[in-house]
Amino acid sequence: MLLDRDPIICVFLASVVVCAMAQHAPPWTEDCRKSTYPPSGPTYRGPVPWYTINLDLPPYKRWQELMIDKGSSLKVIVKSMTDMANAFVPSGKLMEMVDHKLHDLLGKLPAPYEEEMKGIAAVTDIPLGEIISFNIFYELFTICTSVIAEDKKGHLLHGRNMDFGIFLGWNINNNTWIVTEELKPLTVNLDFQRSNKTVFKASSFAGYVGMLTGFKPGLFSLTLNERFSLNGGYIGVLEWMLGKKDAMWIGFITRLVLENGTSYEEAKSILTKTKILAPAYFILGGNSSGEGCVITRDRKQSLDVYELEADQGRWYVVQTNYDRWKNTLFLDDRRTPTKMCLNRTTQENISFETMYDVLSTKPVLNKLTVFTTLMDVKKGRLETYLRDCPDPCIGW
Ligand SMILES: *[C@@H]1O[C@H](CO)[C@@H](O)[C@H](O)[C@H]1NC(C)=O
Ligand SMILES: *[C@@H]1O[C@H](CO)[C@@H](O)[C@H](O)[C@H]1NC(C)=O
Ligand SMILES: *[C@@H]1O[C@H](CO)[C@@H](O)[C@H](O)[C@H]1NC(C)=O
Ligand SMILES: *[C@@H]1O[C@H](CO)[C@@H](O)[C@H](O)[C@H]1NC(C)=O
Ligand SMILES: *[C@@H]1O[C@H](CO)[C@@H](O)[C@H](O)[C@H]1NC(C)=O
Ligand SMILES: *[C@@H]1O[C@H](CO)[C@@H](O)[C@H](O)[C@H]1NC(C)=O
Questions:
Q1: Quick one: which ligand is closest to 380's CA?
Q2: What residues form the catalytic site here (predicted)?
Q3: Residue 22: per-residue pLDDT
Q4: One of 10, 19, 32, 144 is an active-site residue; which one?
Q5: Does residue 344's CB lie within 6 angstroms of at least one atom of ligand 5?
Q6: What is the pLDDT of residues 115-128, one digit of tens each?
Q7: Which ligand neighbours the alpha carbon of 52 most closely?
Q8: Pick from 169-178, 219-228, 352-361: least confident
Q9: For the whole model, what pTM was predicted?
Q10: How close is the Cα of 100 to the center of ligand 6, in Å?
């Protein structure tokens, strides 16, 4: 099971101070939380601002208003990534390559992303290569928990914790992940509009043009979780550089489906069939009973589509970062506590309130958790809350 993860993760895990068994024992786990909603207290960092992205504007100009506000926060995180790259390759050659060669190496990125990233680079005055790297990063390092649940009336709810920032440095002053903390001020809710009408809504990080969490009011909701595999995203990126450009970036396919998809069934078909650059899990919910599934993807094909079947007692689907037919990494079992807390909640009582309780229970909530999102397709609701996980709390 360890082999499924990259060797670098094993090295990393071995070097982390937290004891291996900690995740299975208090104080790093806790009884299912209750009455945490509306969010307050030490695990709630604060609200997330809304911005409108006008799709009628040319791609180069769309992100301007947002990036004027968030440019300085983006610079902070890009600097952390640069410092890390320079720590690996002290000559500075790696960053020199990123700044001057990455764009050529990758070749032209598909529309509208190329122009959007150029626009972001221009407004923030950050080199295009670094904006592109920032965008590639999410293809490789998102560790998350996603849940779709159906209540007794056949009404669907979709929740997710966005966990991000592993590997990228630990702040020993206050026991936090550096990048996880730096992402909090970049977290935004986006209302993508055409002709002044909402096309879809999403929760994302300013500077990122793909989408990992979002929904189309009335139609469907979608989240993306990272899937680790030896035949992973690195190979896909390499193939892309070598000229094999028939696969889609995963954050881009999710954006495409949210922006131009017209139904749950169509979204499911695209997410199942399109060749993608990195393995992934797509968690897709629809607008009516039974429409919820987890699609486990290889780069070339779908390995499994696991669907809700409330009449068979399967009233929720849960996805973390492991194939459902395999054990989780023993150091990182967020799946069992998520299911256990959903079981305790019962289908009668599932709601935004109780979904937030589940996503607030350690280790489902952990030091990598940047935000928690709750979506209700039918009611057109999307709520995102910034999170903290004060000590004692596990690192992931
Ligand atoms: C930890 O310290 C960093 C750097 O000073 C700060 O940005 C971050 O907000 C702190 N996080 C918490 C949870 O206190
Ligand atoms: C959108 O609304 C603004 C302000 O209400 C208006 O000026 C603009 O013409 C509208 N745009 C479209 C494409 O309808
Ligand atoms: C959605 O479709 C429009 C019209 O065909 C196209 O211009 C746009 O680039 C598409 N969006 C994405 C994210 O591919
Ligand atoms: C649910 O989605 C389908 C397309 O998948 C659409 O035809 C239907 O109108 C939607 N229902 C509601 C109530 O919006
Ligand atoms: C949750 O309930 C299902 C159905 O009763 C059961 O199969 C599963 O083992 C339970 N999971 C946990 C973690 O309690
Ligand atoms: C469901 O919610 C009701 C009302 O809040 C509560 O009385 C009941 O105990 C809950 N059931 C479970 C299984 O938690």
A1: 4
A2: 144 (nucleophile)
A3: 44
A4: 144
A5: no
A6: 999 999 999 999 99
A7: 2
A8: 169-178
A9: 0.91
A10: 59
